[in-house]
Amino acid sequence: GAGVSQSPSNKVTEKGKDVELRCDPISGHTALYWYRQSLGQGLEFLIYFQGNSAPDKSGLPSDRFSAERTGGSVSTLTIQRTQQEDSAVYLCASSLYFGSTGELFFGEGSRLTVL
Amino acid sequence: AQSVTQPDIHITVSEGASLELRCNYSYGATPYLFWYVQSPGQGLQLLLKYFSGDTLVQGIKGFEAEFKRSQSSFNLRKPSVHWSDAAEYFCASTGTASKLTFGTGTRLQVTL
After folding, report:
1. Residue B90 contacts residue B63 (beta carbons within 8 Å)
2. A77 touches chain B (CB under 8 A)
3. Alpha-carbon gap, residue A63 to A10, rounded angstroms
4. At a CB cut-off of 8 Å and minimum separation 6, what does B41 contact?
5. Cα–Cα distance measured from residue A92 to residue A89, given in angstroms and rounded to the nearest whole number
6. Do residues A37 and B103 touch, judged by C-beta distance below 8 A?
């Protein structure tokens, strides 16, 4: 596609349920990033992928969070046993390659609300 | 640790007035610096970036930013603001061309 695509755009779930958020990066972009945007908190780095591997998982808040990327393309961020503090907008971005002068192309985000 | 500070949470300017959004970074060496804009319901878009060389960089939509090493700042400016500039602006840095560290953002409101 022309840009980074994320789905769902909105997700409301009950506390304790698992959720999956999907990111489809720009075709040909080898690097993919997940950020979390909470009200008043700016953007918090979660994880990045270079190809299918994730060299830096340092931003994942807890072991309830995991992410994978297959075929060097689509990525899925999974949150298990969701908590209310997980409510945020989850942003995905891609770039041509890791370290490519910082120009990340962002999707519109997936807004997660945990009741 | 690397950090980015945007001291102004919310700024209101009149259409046609000049604008300056502040950004300070914390990093031992010269970082790579960026400004992104996020319009309501949209993803972030890169406005401009600084790596080295001329400390005044031009970006899209008439924006510019000046890198000042002595002040550890990278402030964003625009001579005349348009109502369509209302959005949230994020400053970001990276020290080794790795993951970006973002500031908490400045929300710009433009009055007519």
Report:
1. no
2. no
3. 23
4. A108
5. 10
6. no
Handedness of CA B47, B9, A12, A69 (dihedral sign): positive
Q: Across all residues in chain A, what is the average pLDDT?
A: 91
| Cβ contact B104–A99 (<8 Å) | no
Other Cβ atoms closer than 10 A to B47: 23
Q: Which residues of B51-79 are buried (b: 16+ CB within 10 A; e: fewer)?
A: eeeeeebebeeebbbbbeeeeebbbbebe
What tokens were used for A14? 């009950």
How close B68 gets to chain A, by Cα (Å)? 20
**Which of B46, B49, B90 is nearest residue A42 as measured by Cβ atoms?**
B90
Please enumerate in sequence order all residues whose Cβ is within 8 A of that of A95, keeping only pairs 6 or more positions apart, or say none. Answer: A29, A31, A33, A102, A103, A104, A105
- Closest Cα in chain B to A58: B99
CA distance A111 to chain B (A): 10
Q: What distance lies between CA A27 and its chain's CA centroid? A: 17
* pLDDT of A48 above 50: yes
Each residue's pLDDT expressed in tens, for chain B with a length of 112 residues:
678 999 999 999 999 999 999 999 987 677 889 999 999 878 899 999 998 888 999 999 999 999 999 999 999 999 999 999 999 999 998 865 467 889 999 999 999 9
Cβ distance A42 to B44 less than 8 Å, yes or no, reads: no
The predicted pLDDT at position B28 comes to 67
